[in-house]
Amino acid sequence: MDYLDPEEEFEMMHADELEMMNEMDFNTDAVKICSPKDTRRSLKFSSNERVDYEGNFNLSSELNGVFPLSQTSVVSFNLDGNDENEAQPSTSSSINNKRYLDVEDIFGNTDDINFEDVELEPVLKRQKVNPLSEKDIKQQDLIKKIIDQRKIFKSGKRSNFLSSISYNSSNHTQPYESVSRRVPSWSFFPACDNENQRVYIRFRSADAVQEEISSLSWHTKSVQLLSDPVDELIARSYEKIENNEGIQSDVNQNGVSILDNGIDNTAELWVQKYKPNRYLDLLSDESTNRMLLQWLKIWDKVVFNKEVNKKRKVMSVYEKSAGNKFTKKNQTLDEELDENNCPKYKLALLCGPPGLGKTTLAHLVARQAGYNVVEMNASDDRNLTSFKRQLEATTQMCSVMSNDSRPNCLVLDEIDGAPASIDFLIKFATEKRVTRKKKPDKKEEKSSILKRPIICICNDVYVPALRNLRQNAFVLNFPPTSSVRLVERLMEISSYENIKTDMGAMTALGTKTNNDIRSCLSTLSCFRNQSVNLLHVKNANIGAKDMQKGLFSVWQEIFQIKKSCFENNPNSTSDGFSSHNNVIKDRINSVLKTVQSYGDYEKLSQGIFENYLSLKPKDSSLTNIAEGLEWFCNFDKTMHVINSSQNYSLFPYLPYNFATWHCLFATFTWPKITYPSAGYEATMRKNKYKQIMDELMSGIIPSIRTFLHRDQVLLDTMPLVMHIAVPNLRSISTQLFTEKEKEDLSKVVNIMIDYGLNYFQERDVDGSFNFVLNPCVDDAVKFPGLETFPTSSYATKQLISREIELENLRKRMSHGQLNNITVEPDEFDENEKNISTPKAVKGVRNKQITPNHLQRLTPKIVGPTKVTKKKDFFGREIDSPVGHKHKEFRDEIVKSDVWYHFKEGYSNAVRKSVLMKDLY
Amino acid sequence: MSLWADKYRPNSLQKVDYFQEQAQHLTNLVNQGDFPHLLFYGPNGAGKKTRILALLRQLYGPGVERLRTEHMNFMTPSNKKFEIMTVASNYHIEVNASDAGMYDRIVVMELIKTVAQTHQLDSTKQRHFKVILLTEVDRLTKEAQQALRRTMEKYMATCRIILCANSIGQVIPAIRSRCLAVRVPAPTHEDICKILKTICKKEGLTLPDELALIISQSCERNLRRAILMLEASKVKQYPFDVKQSVVVPDWQLYIGDTAKQILSQQTPGKLLEVRSMLYELIVHGIPTNVIFKFLLKELVKNCDISLKHDIVEIASFYEHSLLKGNKTMFHLEAFVAKFMLLYSKFMEESLNGIF
Fold this sequence. Notes:
The complex is a heterodimer. Chain A is mostly helical. Chain A has 39 helices and twelve strands. Chain B has helices at 4-7, 20-31, 48-60, 104-116, 142-154, 173-178, 189-203, 209-217, 223-236, 250-264, 268-283, 288-301, 305-324, 328-354; strands at 38-41, 68-75, 81-88, 92-95, 130-135, 159-165, 180-183. The longest helix of chain B has 27 residues, at 328-354. Chains A and B meet through helix 28, helix 30, helix 31, helix 32 and helix 33 of A and helix 3, strand 3, helix 9, helix 10 and helix 11 of B.
């Protein structure tokens, strides 16, 4: 047979599929149409390729760690094509397999469509149509290629990483000649191909194969882009899967027993379960505990009417052994009582990070001191009215119904969430005394003083909402729990809960959660009925709190190398080089984590930028700095792209900048970090100067403005105008000025008018008057450290200012006159407010101002009214009907000898006082 | 109009002091009655605006010189209102659309539409088109320029657009091809000297040739600056002295000081000092390209020739990176640090070479 007929081709595919199906444990589903004879033949053919894929299977089996390939396997492979895959235990022996196939033949092929490669389908179909006519080798090549592709595809389906390896290895094996048609020189095994021609297949020793595999292990020397090598990741993922399976099975096995326990499932959280019930059980810092207890004890006087014994503090046995340690602390308690026998501070404020046992402490201590604890927290209704009601109810009443006759102690949990009630609380606690004094007779009960202790609890004492409370309350800062006691307690609990564990694991758990008791317990409860070791704790994703840190501590972490970073990761190997790598890796990871959890990259980067130079540099050369700055540029560019195109997919790359800065700038010394304000200040000042320039630009007269734009004004005109606009004048009367001085003055005045500048009088801080430029361009173009612009004297400035006013006046008047030809007197009135003697000026055509006493009313000479037509922007003429009406009206008036124009609503309508004798 | 720079500005194409040939071409262009869209480009102080205004005067008569400022209001798609100041005569309107920042596209579109959609009523007496003068086209965003290209063609019947830019590098090719580009190069030193002398003659002053040359050399071939410098020098000291120091803008002196600081010492501490000086420049609104240009010029002055090439390269690199970013300071400081590194390395090597 020279060519493949379609049937054979098809079978070949099936054979191939079968092989794959075997691998995939699809034995039961696989169905064949072909006869056994055909199968064998076709398999012989496909063995051709399979040899090529020797490496593939070898490698896969190697990596699975099941069977290394031996010589015999190759032999059996060729003897019996069906049993090609030794690596798969499912196809146990050739005979079985054959028989199995025979059985399968009985059933029709129903499922193979599912296994067809969809993409290759058209190609196959085309082959089916005209395979008979084409005998050339091309066809065969194509088929071979298709099969190759399929194999790769299938094996790729099996496992991604195997496919990549097999792909590589198949590439690598190509240069080796494993199959020959001539009798080769190397040891061989003869076989027949599908055309019944003899081929010789090479025998390879197991060692050689091994060697080849090891040479193919690409990952050993390749450059890695990931933080860990891929194979490590794969191994880890397998481990994880196994672990999960283990846990799964554990759960399955233990399922019954857990159910048997019964209590475990129904019981409350461990946090509740192992809550300390006695003062002695408290885990929190002893001095804090006692301080609070002591504060509560001061209330005894007013609440229980007992005399407080200052010597005898707490009647705890434990206390005696502990000694008076707390007195050394700076948190000292003022034990003085006020006139009502109440403590000075009526409120206690407990603050500290979550999970340290603040609430527990408050409850326990209050109970210990003999109070009935009433708690209000964020889950309660906390608007002002309900808060008021609750507050009054708890502090002034006592429960009657129950037998519990103990006085109430109010615990306000999460107080920082209710700012409105804080103010009321403070008023309630402090100002009640005053009200009582004011009106002693009225409402005695209602204005009674606070006679019950109130304990407030918050997380961050420096929240703005708490500012007032801080001053009025006895503030107790919660130090972190000592890890020794925490670990002790955790060990106790775990032994109680049948968790096999050790001290190391518990310590790790404690540090991981920042000694947060609550999160330790909840983490631990996930491991119930299992053993916990160090590795579990390290790898557990649970238990890691949201570790957002303050701005400064983030900066500090970036600038400082932590000693604790040198603790080895459990995964790391112990040899020197890699441990060094791991240290850097750990550092980078921790910086990344901190930065990511902080989030505000912009602010962080600004802080780093403004601080890195003032810190002690690693080395005095600028190499690091220059490189760091390059990263700053990079950061800025990325940020710009993100902001301008809203492309937030780039956001995850920003923290890596911080990692680089950490590597470049971090030292072991403690960094002194200041808050970055330079950037903000610069922006503010920039805006200020920009405003000045805007003001200036809008003041420049249009015929000059058209030639300028902002930059040119700033760069060229203004700095030089500052030098030009300073006249050299003597401080004498204007009349005595020389011709040149007058010229200078008028020039300066003109320049200043052109650019809309003027001097304004302003009072200095010390009370003296000074003329300042407005808009204050001199500020905007002046640089510090350079010689200042020449300035004129106070008198000169005053003179200039006055001249500018005058000149403006004149301009406006001449403008009015220009308009006067067309504009009616009514309109002129708008200018009148500013002009002292408009009518007189109207009469006098030259620009001289006639002194008031010389003014005469002169009849207006109205020539033939030449009306220039007003044009609008588009050059159209505007016909103003109002104008005509007035014209006639005016003519009539002016005819008479005496006339005046009275304007309703203006007191200054008639300007001149006219004597009767002047009229006649 | 009492600054010399304003006073002696030629107001017609016949009177321009240099490139008379070009002015003649422009006159011819206008005299034919119609002309295509124009794109004037050239450095600051070369006389682009002078030529444009002279051209308009040639076209419409002295009426174009009666200018007024107008505030035009625009509304963004997000209903934010903003205002743009325009300078207009009855025949033309001038707008600097880049004042609107990122909203310049709206300005370009709205303005041209409103101006161009009205026809001149009496086209026998007047030209049948009006002129829209867009300045600083090179600072327009790409979107605005894209918006411009279609409107330019659409309203060709009723308006002509004159564009004015410092360089056409930033103008998209589509616009460049729609306009007749007119390059107005900076005047030569001789031109500047000649103009300065003419002005002095008109003012009745005597200006020594040497001083004129000094001024022309220190003004970056910016004629406006040259005239202003002349006037400032005159106020400072007259009669002129050849050795008299020319008044230079403050910012230029300050950049010189900054460069001196950089060259004096190459340490992180110095870098910190330089940073505050650079902040000062940025705060005063000196454009970053100007800072880069002058700083580079000052720095390169004292450098070895082998170093110059590298320094110019890093300067151009960081100026480019600045354009792609937002925070000016990062890039400026990066440039300074890189320069310090190169410079100190070079100094060390040369010192080692001596011993």
